[in-house]
């Protein structure tokens, strides 16, 4: 009997640990006023909805960078909401006392901030002379945050790595510095140091490219993933959900959804680990609930599964260890009204952020 107790106690401890939930608190980092002047963030209301606010806001140590596509400039704001500098349009009329660093962008897209504070800016090649499908607005002319990355028209682009003082480090193309343009970019993911990951599409195939100091280090190509050649492919239609890189570039986690070939219904989701050097899959996790989604990878090799709770009023991040074991939970309770809150995202330093629109301001919160 005593031996049975000794066996049960660790088991109960692990069960409690697995279902422990840490409630995180939101800490406001930035509050950027919305307005119609050059020193604020211009908000355009369409049908009583603010349409030109970015879903995610790239955060540096003391600044945020907002792409104003309408004026073709990047605005840098400090933690007090003051405009620190602008970068871009040479014809932009700068404000007294606020430095402006001219650079002629073809059309602004996604913006990211590296660990060292440099800006990585998607510079779309001008669509002048291109014939667009009826009813589709030119993506590069859309207001900041309102452009669609799923449009049928592909606008090639380069990435510009530029300092916060307007010093251009290099131009990055799909194969490295000064190479051919990217065709479609879905996400820019800064890693540790000078690492940068670009999630892109080439010829209808998704690809995660890994760059370091502007040099291409490797690719994970959708067509090369062994899951699609496995025995499961005979019974299921398998689709790639996303590929997320570890911040140090050691490996990626790829999430796949499996649908029955008979009735086309969702059956389960699986997460596999791949390295940039080896295309063999290492099974990590199977998920039965279609609403549970791979969210991010931490530097310590843990990863988060996103789970919506309380009709969206809170988020539970399931913490999984490097072997795929569910070890903890973190809850993000959103203060009402829920409609004020926008995207939630992470960075390479394991910070979790959320964007909120409230009382005439764009706010960036960190969960602690």
UniProtKB/TrEMBL annotation:
InterPro entries: LIC12708-like (IPR058072). It comes from the Bacteria. NCBIfam families: LIC12708_fam. This is 6-bladed beta-propeller.
